Amino acid sequence: MRLRLPLVAATALAAVAATAACSPSAPSESAGQGGDKNATLTVATTTDVVNFNPLLGNSRTDGWITNLMYPRLLTIDANGAKQPYLAADRGYSDPTTGFYELRGDMKWSDGTAVSAADVAYTINTIMTKKPAGNVVYGQLANVESASAPTATRVELKLKRPDATVVDEVGFWMNVVPKHVFEKAPDAGTFANNSDWVSAGPFKLTTVAKGQSYTLERVTPYPMAPAGTPNVAKVVYRVYPDVNTEILALRNGDVDLIANALPPAQVKTLQSTPGVKVQEVPGLGYAHMTYNMTRKPLDNLKVRQALAHAVDYEAIRSVVLQGQAVTTGSSPIPPVLKDFVKPDLKEYAFDPALARKLVTESGVGTLRPLTMIYSLQDAVTSQWAQLVKDNAAQAGITIELQGMDRNTYLAKTAAGEYDIYAGNFAIMDDPATNMALTFLPDGAINYTKVDDPALSALITKATATTDKAAQKDLIWQAATLVHDNVYDNVMYMQNLYVAHSDKWDGFVVKPSELLSVVDPQSLANARKVG
Amino acid sequence: MPPVVGFVARRLGRAVLTLWFATTITFLLLRLLPGNPALAVATPNMTPQTQAILLRQYGLDEPLLVQYGKYLWQLVQGNLGVSITQSVPVTDVLLERLPWTLLLTGSSLLVTVAVGIPLGVLAATRPSGLLDRLVQVGGVVGQSVFVPSVAIALLFLFGLQLRWLPIGGAYSPGVYGGRWYLDVAAHLVLPCASLVLVQLGSYVLALRATLIDSLGEDYCVLATAKGLPHRKVVWKHALRNALLPTTTLVGLQLGFLVGGAVLTETVFAYPGIGRGIYEAVTQLDYPVLQGAFVLLAATVVLANVLTDLAYGLLDPRVRTQ
User: Fold this and answer.
1) pLDDT of A29-51, one tens digit each?
2) Measured between beta carbons, which residues in chain B are less than 8 angstroms from residue A212?
3) Bridge-partner residues for A238, per DSSP?
4) Is the CB of B86 inside 8 Å of chain A's CB atoms?
């Protein structure tokens, strides 16, 4: 009995010691600490970095951080047009040879020049290693090989004419340093999680996993004002919950929220003192596709009836609080001014017409149709209910099947749905994206459409380098999609990001991937308050 | 065999069995989920062949029994596999996060007990008094609230309105040395408080009820009749017996703490295992999920073993049952 107290005390001490042994330890002071007293821009994000190898990156935050370190050949302007970045010029010297001419004044952080050899190496590595999750691999289907005939010229040898590959690869691919990545046992699985050699406006110096990522200014950086970024440091901080993220902005813990705000938060933040809300054009769209391999959705009149049984304006004004625009039920979003077809009109919400079309279709009583969507997509989850209610007015029964993202992806891949509801994130090149969406073997052909006339138009458009001719083909294809309801594009959402009013100078670019956090924007950002 | 040795051996045997059952259920539940991890990292340009390569790479294309056999064999060797999304050993992923979860759950458990015992005693010794009523109402409310709601309310009040404490994270970037420990403590206050608030109620109410029962027992009445000061009767005689059920409750609450930690760590951007689970679920990272659940199951089982042993220490009758 008398021994018990010491025994309990000893046990407690042992527990404390054990806890202390595996308690969090203080980080050591890195070389990046102290020094420059210039401003630090703190950016909030909701997700952690999955990996630092841009050949593999699949999370949004991965993209934001690796974009600051590994340059792209091209960027995109507010009108959705590709613009020079690392490549000063690009094009085709003949129908089966694409080229990039690099600017020649960029260096890796170890002093080595960024050269055509790095670009050719990156392309060839993607083609041979097929890194998991790489977005460029699919765009290289028509590329035989890449070479670097000079220090600044890259040439792509094509298997067949392909008018999209130069711009698409130029925009989507981050160039990696050959002299670093070729030393890795396998560049396709290389973790690249320390001793970074990069060539952006900021260099990653400190990582606190799950917490923050600190990047420091690189001088010189030729694409910044006066050759150097305005801010000394950019720190990304992770807040998985968007409400916490917003509180952190409001109390000054962070200066900018990188991810687009939920529609419901936009108005609140617009009237919050000390906060500025910036509009970012969307490059994607929300859509519903009707699985044509399932009867009666192979019937055009049924698809038209479904298209006329949705109150699109109500969805945009109620669910998106006016933060979205119509695309005229066209697969070309209005931001792509060079390609948009203005005479395509949105399907009118007309329950009576929808009923009439169902009667004319000859399918008899329409069976209940299932609609799948991801419950993690709050906006889609809200408008799905409206779609169901609207359809009911036309006598059409839609059974909603909201599910977790992985189940949704699995069902989508297996084609287990009548109606697919979701989003197309970035539509930057109509020909490429239409090929993915409407060709029979397209990776995201959720309509399961196989229309020879449409396929011919898209195939021709992807091989046509003449812009005017390509635009004409795209217009014809868009009209076919619209008239046959091969895709029901409902709206293009305008995105909004929030930052502290003590900051300005951000350069707005379309899409959440670029928005105000692309390298040029962050290099131009400055603290004014 | 001495009764104590038999008692400990029985408890440990039961713990191993529980752990095996928990790991098996975890394994099966994850495989029953629709979808596959290749789709979680899929892009529009990922071909079915690439997906197949990815699944083969992680052995997810093998028959279920083969996967299970390998999983158990690796487990007994202390190998939790490799994270699908991060391409690093799961052990590394978890060990990086474990200290934060231990700090958060450990401190909240400690605060709950430290605050709960005096509150429970005060409420029980003055039944129907103002404090007792407050404890009862507060206890019921505390048991009913949703952790994230408490978390956001605390953040709003102390982080935004009063600006006393930081919003989110475990520490601020760029803080080093001695200041770092203070910074960690400041970041710990709100997540710890939210966990304490939701678990304190049940702890205090349980202690209050058992203490009121104990105080009505003959041995306490006799002790009072013998002229022992009331404080001594309460703290020395009644409390020891009243602590038995509440000790069990502490062990049981560790399971709830783990569940609460997933939500709390997510709202507070705290980099512990709970948030790791949240991220692994969204990415369908089987190995990380399996590893995290095994680790948490082991923690809960271990806590319950320790609770049983403590119970045996406090109540000799238990050792001989």
Assistant:
1) 443 333 344 789 999 999 888 88
2) 169, 173
3) A45
4) yes
Does residue A6 have a pLDDT over 80? Answer: no
Residue A190 domain-assigned (yes or no) = no
Q: What's the average model confidence in pLDDT over B17-44?
A: 75
DSSP-derived 3-state class of residue A204: strand
Q: Which domain holds residue A107?
A: 71-182
Contact A356, A366 (CB under 8 A): no
Residue range of the domain that includes B21: 3-77
Q: Is residue B82 part of a domain?
A: no
Task: Name the residue among A25, A206, A409 with its Cβ closest to that of B42.
Answer: A409
B145 and B244: one domain? yes
Q: In this structure, is residue B221 part of a structural domain?
A: yes
Window 97-116 of B: residues touching A by CB (8 A cutoff) are 97-100, 102-103, 106
CB neighbourhood size of B61 (10 A): 14
Within a domain: residue B278? yes
Q: Which residue of B has its CA nearest to A244?
A: B267
The pLDDT tens digits for A215-273 are 999 988 888 878 889 899 999 999 988 889 999 999 999 999 999 998 888 989 999 99
* CA atoms in the 13 A half-sphere facing the CB of B38: 20
- How many structural domains does chain A have? 2
Domain stops at, among A140, A163, A182: A182
Domain count across chain B: 2
Q: Is A272 exposed, middle or buried (0-12, 13-18, 19+ CB in 10 A)?
A: middle
Structural domain contains residue A433: yes
A19 to chain B: closest CA residue = B102
Q: Are B176 and A136 an interchain contact pair (Cβ–Cβ within 8 Å)?
A: no
Cβ distance B85 to A191 less than 8 Å, yes or no, reads: no
- A518 vs chain B: nearest CA distance in angstroms? 21
Distance CA B200, CA B246 (A): 12
- pLDDT tier at A17 (50, 70, 90 boundaries)? very low
* Residue-wise pLDDT tens digits, A397-423: 999 999 988 788 888 888 999 999 999
- The verdict on A294 and A404 lying in the same domain is yes
- How far apart CA A237 and CA A232 sit, in angstroms, is 16
Domain of residue A115, CATH code: 3.90.76.10
Residues B139 and B38 in one domain: no
Cβ neighbours of residue A64 under 8 Å, at least 6 residues apart? A43, A45, A236, A258, A513, A517
Q: Is residue A277 part of a domain?
A: no
pLDDT band per the 50, 70, 90 thresholds, residue A374: very high
pLDDT of residue A425: 78
Q: Identify whether residues B226 and B162 lie together within a single domain.
A: yes
